[in-house]
Amino acid sequence: MIKDRGGEFMNPYESIQLPNVINAAGKMTYLGSSAVLPEVARTMSESARSFVDMAQLKATVQRKIAAMVEAEAACVTSCAAAGIVVSVAAALTGTDLDKVEALPLIKGGKREVILQKGHAVSFGANLTQMIRMTGAEVKEIGTVNGVKPYHLKGAINEATAAIVYVVSHHAVSSEMLSLREVTDIAALHGIPVIVDAAAEVDLQLYLAQGATAVIYSGHKAIGGPTSGLIIGSKPFMEACWLQEKGYARAMKIGKENIMGLYASLEAYMRLDQQSLTESYANIVDVLQREVTGIPGLSTRTAWDATRPIPRLQLIVGDEAGLTAKQLIGLLEQGTPSIRTRNHLADEGIIQFDPRELRLEEIGQIGTMLRSILDKRKQEA
Ligand SMILES: *Cc1c(COP(=O)(O)O)cnc(C)c1O
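^ thats the input. predicted complex w/ pyridoxal-5'-phosphate below
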């Protein structure tokens, strides 16, 4: 049901001559992240055509979301990147409006944000820059392949405003401090720990592990429109809300996206992860059968490092007569444009992600692959 666009569907992007995209890349910001559920789209459309007191809307939705995920409080933002800026700003200013309005000039002594070296990632933009935008200084600790508790203890001083912790496939996953190790040390010094869990699926785990605030993308696992969410301690969220009088004004989220995020989250909370994972596995299975037997290509399945997501790996052999990178390019240039997950391309592997792929699109992927490889063979 999650793949259903609802009734007769016209792709509006074709009306401005943009190619139809088959999304086998996952929930990628550069492809528009998630396709919202039909009922979410309806809520958004009706919200966009109505008026509401924005302060009441935010307060109400934030209260309902906090109750849903069993957090003390919540703050809606325009995206997770904005959530990073807002929460770091909150750590710098607290609820002092004078400090909020002064940023990026920091009034007061706390100006340093600690980040493990293996967490200094790019998610398409540089996480470090999102932190530095507030005026804060980033203090990286350890090395890319090793951070120990003494690195963190040694970095904490009177200037420490917060620690940012990244949970992501982008981050180095081994030899970094665990969230528990970080929150235990931070608690001794009363330092807030801000977790960037933008693309993660679990809305309770990181608060349970002692985080002060946890940031999610509304348009990734939650499947909503472009939006973001911070959840966490009430005093910290109060400082986040106040950023609306400062930085968050330049990162505004509209009424229709607030309602879209809320409706998506309601559906997400009702969702049975087990059956969702099974539906993903089914898509991967059907796709595997579709592309098995194409000369030069072999397949296997693989699971995501941190999340319950199966993917099909297409291994491009010498027989194919082209490299994985060339094949990715041809899939992308086709009509429809087929987009895949490409960070293993150098190893000859193209990954197909099931999350935003529809069953009815799988035949087109097979047809396109066969036609590209047949053509290659004739040219050879
Ligand atoms: C996607 C992502 C972001 C940015 O999320 P947006 O909501 O698109 O701004 C930040 N951090 C991580 C780890 C991400 O994966």
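The first strand starts at residue 21 and ends at 23.
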